[in-house]
Amino acid sequence: MFGLFKKKGEVLLPAMKGEVVGLDQVPDAVFSQRMLGDGYAMIPSEGVVIAPVTGVVVQIFPTNHAFGIVTDSGLEVLVHIGIDTVEMKGEGFKRLVEVDTKVTAGTPIIEVDLALVKLKAKSAITPVVITNKEKVKSLKVNFGINPSEAALIEVNT
Prior knowledge:
There is one protein chain. The chain is 7% helix and 39% strand. By secondary structure, it is mainly beta. It has one domain (9-155): Glucose Permease (Domain IIA) (Distorted Sandwich). An eight-stranded antiparallel beta sheet has the order 9-5-6-7-11-3-2-13, with no helix packed on it. A three-stranded antiparallel beta sheet has the order 1-14-12, with no helix packed on it. A hairpin with a 5-residue loop joins β6 (66-70) and β7 (76-80). The longest helix is centred in the last third of the chain and has 7 residues, at 114-120.
């Protein structure tokens, strides 16, 4: 009624086409043990990585293997494409936007050669993590192949 009881939250889209899985499936303890924060991971089937949320791109690593977005509600979302992909030194990654770009959820951010990642990196699995976990009141992940929403996060205000 009049939005008085509406929860403040953010919907995260799947960062890539593929399967949404839990962070516990990521073969890197930093992600699987949630040292950086909570979220979900993608087992990608296509190599276009999109903004999972609307916000500002605040960081893109020089190797283009990871980027960060901050939403209007202050959530800090890190997308890390593959595991040990930093060692590829940018090979197979193409940046589509620049830092300080305002993006809407679904905007393509990075193109990645998945075949090359599978050949040269430890894994193509892609964690999507909320790094400022103190902002997260609750997190509900929708597991499966190509869900319309990967996660719903209720934000602490």
